[in-house]
Amino acid sequence: MTAALLQLAPDMRGCFAATPALAALAAGAHWSLECQFFDNAVALAERVHAAARSAASAHLLATALVRRGDLLSALVVLQPWIEGTLDAAAASAAADDDTPSQILACRYLYARTCLGVNKMAEGEAVMARTLAEVGGKLSAADESAILALLGGLCQYAHGSGQERRAPARPPQCAS
Question: pLDDT tens-digit profile of 112-167?
Fold first, then answer.
């Protein structure tokens, strides 16, 4: 995620403070992600998500899966927080202490993952619906990050028909 999404995807480490065991597992998963121990991070995040199904735990598990390269599994994990509106999802998950910003972070990660697996139309639909729901309520940095992702998804979904390619690298100087 970009630095602009600090408010959109807040550090969710404090979300598990009510249960010390979950907090320790989540901290271990975050540490494993920082140290690039992705298999370990996935195992710890799976335990956290199994114990407390919430947007924060889904985001942690999906982040670990994406970093490990298992994009399709990340989409499956994030799916429950994609459907419905933010207000309805937050209201139904109020017992789990899900906040709209956590659900929004799940949607952003879902759309980014859709970009990675060439499901541009699906990611575009999620981001367009999200922007319609929260447009004007976000900070300028968060809204611009959503618009940038939406622009990238639209470019590949409705572009000139070319295959998605990595950006061209500048030529290297001969020494």
Answer: 999 999 999 999 999 988 888 887 787 888 888 888 888 888 888 777 545 555 44
How confident is residue 88, by pLDDT bands cut at 50, 70 and 90? low
The total of structural domains in the chain comes to 1
Encoding tokens for residue 117?
A: 């697996």
Residue 136 lies in a domain: yes
**CATH, residue 77:** 1.25.40.10
Range of the domain at 23: 3-142
Helix (H, G, I), strand (E, B) or coil at 135: coil
**112 lies in some domain:** yes
How far apart are alpha carbons 56 and 16 in whole angstroms? 9
Establish if 161 belongs to a structural domain: no
pTM of the model as a whole: 0.77
pLDDT in tens, 105-120: 999 999 999 999 999 9
Instruction: Let me know if 80 is exposed, middle or buried by CB neighbors in 10 A (0-12, 13-18, 19+).
Output: middle
